[in-house]
Amino acid sequence: MSLIIKMDTIKTEEHLKKAIPYIMNERKTNGLHYSNSGVTPEQITDTFFMTKKRFPVRGNRQAYHYKFSFSKDEKISPEDAFAFIKEWVEGYLGDDYDFVCSVHQDRDHLHMHLIFNSVRRTGGKYHYKKGDWNRIVKPLTNHLADKYHTGHLKEKDETLDYSSDYKKRTNGVDWQARVQSDIDKCINISKSYSDFKRKMVTEFHYQLREGVSRDYGVYLSLMPPGKGKAVRSYRLDTGYMPVDIEARIEGRYVMPEINEIADYDMDSNKDSMELHTEISLVGQNRKLDWMMSRNYTFIPYQILSDYQKALVRRTLEAKRMYRRTGTSLQLHEQSVRVIKGMIGEMREMGIYRKTGGQQREYSLKQKKLEQQKVQREVRKWRQK
Q: Residue 212, by phi and psi: left (phi above 0), alpha (psi -120 to 50) or beta?
């Protein structure tokens, strides 16, 4: 007996408009569906989009779709499965997100669906952080499995597990394991962090760059030969961030204690969450100290003011727009200043931008006014 979870993203508005009615289909649910955002699929969908309109964010993810499936030999009743998914949503999302959940009974095994908004009700995007599976999802699910006398969460399922799907898409190559193996080899032959970066490019033939994430700080983007997409170091296992790589090269790396985080007790989750927060802050301070020693100017996004966050978003938007054309941000800003100056001069002269038929009409009027001006000058000359 077991339970498996599959997590998908909904990336288009059309997909979201179809997904919500699908999981609420009465022929599949027999009335076992619940939402904190409305009663009908139309009301729930409207609430999702109203939240997005109120707190606009960047990105193409509209919502997240979690699917929970019990094995065929589970004896849980539909009513208990409904209570299971409602408690799971309360424990994982609380009331921070618009959501709708349901139990489908149209197959030989019960399965539940959960769709929740990609935007928080108080603003900001949903973000699944590395480690949330072992820290939150797995303990929460297994606690409810014990409560409703079902099997625990099953992992490494060949049909639903992410790593299996990933290997199938990459022709059987486990790129994460390969990148980590190459990093390990390069660390063993490197004398410093700078030497490590140079050898990853020259000897291991990687494309490599450093970036800054508001959640993870400085990270490495590594593209191995033969792969069309880079792997970011914060998506690898623990010990592969730049600060960890340098510590490993210098022989002072200490593996963080993560067993305490994994032992998540639902009856005392407050203490567990405080412990995780304390460990996270220690790790964050270590990363900040390392970045300051490397002369990185990095301020966590969360501590910025609303005005500063708006400036950061505008800057990043400009970089994304002009990176595609190869234009530097500095040249772009100079061009914008020149264009604004030209627009101001044109407005002072009474010249405005016209298009299509308006432009032709505007040209004819200008030509007629010029002819009238010439005629007036001729009449004045004759009178003299």
A: beta
Residue owning tokens 């802050």: 281
Enclosing H/E stretch for 221 = strand 217-223
d(CA 339, CA 331): 12
Is 116:138 a contact under the CB 8 Å cutoff?
A: no
Per-residue pLDDT reduced to its tens digit, 158-174: 443 444 444 445 555 67
Rounded-to-integer distance, Cα 29 and Cα 102, Å? 7
Q: What b/e readout covers 132-142, taking b as 16+ CB neighbours within 10 angstroms?
A: ebebbbbbbbb
What are 217's two structure tokens? 């700080």
Weakly modelled stretches of the chain, pLDDT under 70: 1, 155-173, 214-215, 254-301, 319-333, 336, 347-364, 384
Distance between CA atoms of residues 319 and 329, nearest Å? 6
Which pTM does this prediction carry?
Answer: 0.47
